[in-house]
Design brief:
The structure is a homodimer. Chain A is an alpha+beta fold. In chain A, strands 1, 2, 3, 4, 5, 6, 7, 8, 9 and 10 form a ten-stranded mixed sheet that branches. In chain A, strand 2 and strand 3 form a beta hairpin. The first copy, chain A, starts with a strand and ends with a strand. In chain A, about 40% of the residues are buried. The mean pLDDT of chain A is about 95.
């Protein structure tokens, strides 16, 4: 028996998210199905980040246990032969039997892309959220700075979520602008349900001039989802880095 | 009666190219259909560049004549409401009645994107051609320099094509590398059928070390399609600039 770690990239457009669901196409479901076929064993992967429906990833992580004699490093190639083309393993290797991707300290970076132009661009529509309202990046940076550090992010968590604590630590938020594309990179040790997309929706309200930058500190203190901005659409979001510490 | 010029962006993935065909979904067909619906007139657009099946564009150009009282500048907005989301008008304006996009001097720039990495990346699969064989960009640049200028490009033209002259002028070829992405930008006054994709396929053979860079000059002289490299896949190609002189 060995434990294998996969680094998984996917285009989330056609999937109901990572997590296994009956009657829905999910990344976890496709991985389990293709691994069972490849290894002729019952396989259930454990995922690191259960990304939402429509969210993309360059480097999500999954582990599973197997009796196979195929070397762990070769599983990436063999599995890619069976997976649909919108999921591709980037790396596979053996890890210690007690490695659990959700129970070890990690740092994740999500990137949210916004196309801020007069008209949508079809070749970018699947991986960036389009808005024509001009966004002031300097104001967005000022507002984002308030969110860095350890805070109670209850206002930035989907009301549907039931977690024990809504305290999380954001290590860094970087907002870049390259031509008509604005990118928000948020790095943290853990995120609440929809947190990155609600932060993005709120920063966009600041960028449009609907909220003053100071408002973000007040929203944090209110601990109330209705105080924050809308949840930005899933298509703009990609998990771009995953570091185990 | 007025003549209206449209700047058209599209994701070519789901289309059988620009040109109208029976029983196939084409960009031209979608534009005609949506313009007829919008203006309640029989409209047939004239396209500038009849891109192939699967090729993308940021700025193709189409003109049409109409009796409508809708200002030409507003047609972009109204038409985008009706078009499928993989086609978006970027600009519309009135032009003189004798403006014909294929009969005036122009300069077009195509960009071919190559993902040169160990594994495909799903979120880039629709707009870049993946190859794991390492490409030597310096060798590709050396080979590309031979193609700049006026030449008989018969070796770089699909054998199926029947044109009077296979002489064309390439103004510039720029090959860039940013991380694992290689881009080939080719600017010219006109191109033969599949010419950019055959040039790309040939430069990739040079990059892989299959052909020496000098070979490209020999291929030009042979005036024989079978002497050149394969036609690179359509998905990597985008029409990125169109200038009328």
């Amino acid at each position: 028996m060995k434990r294998v770690k996969l680094t998984v990239a996917y285009d989330g457009t056609a999937y109901s998210g990572w997590q296994l669901q009956p009657h829905a196409r999910t990344i976890e479901g496709e991985l389990n199905r293709c691994l069972c076929e490849l290894l002729s064993e019952e396989i259930q992967v454990i995922g690191a980040s259960r990304t939402d429906s429509g969210v993309h990833a360059l480097c999500n992580v999954a582990v599973f246990d197997t009796e196979t004699r195929i070397p762990a490093e070769k599983i990436s190639y063999a599995l890619n032969q069976r997976l649909p083309e919108d999921i591709r393993i980037q790396h596979s290797c053996e890890v210690s039997a007690d490695f659990h991707p959700r129970r070890c300290d990690s740092r994740k970076t999500y990137e949210y892309r916004i196309l801020n132009a007069a008209f949508p661009v079809p070749t970018r529509r699947l991986y960036a959220h389009f808005t024509y309202a001009p966004l002031d990046v300097e104001r967005m940076r000022e507002a984002a700075a308030v969110l860095v550090g350890e805070h109670d992010f209850k206002s930035f968590c989907s009301a549907a979520s039931a977690v024990e604590s809504t305290v999380r630590r954001i290590l860094d938020i970087r907002i870049g602008k390259d031509g008509d594309e604005i990118t928000i990179q948020i790095c943290g040790t853990g995120f609440l349900y929809n947190m990155v997309r609600i932060i993005t929706g709120t920063l966009m309200e600041v960028g449009r001039g609907v909220y003053p930058p100071e408002r973000v500190g007040e929203i944090l203190e209110l601990r109330d989802r209705t105080a924050a901005g809308p949840t930005a659409p899933a298509c703009g979001l990609t998990l771009i880095r995953y570091e185990f510490l």
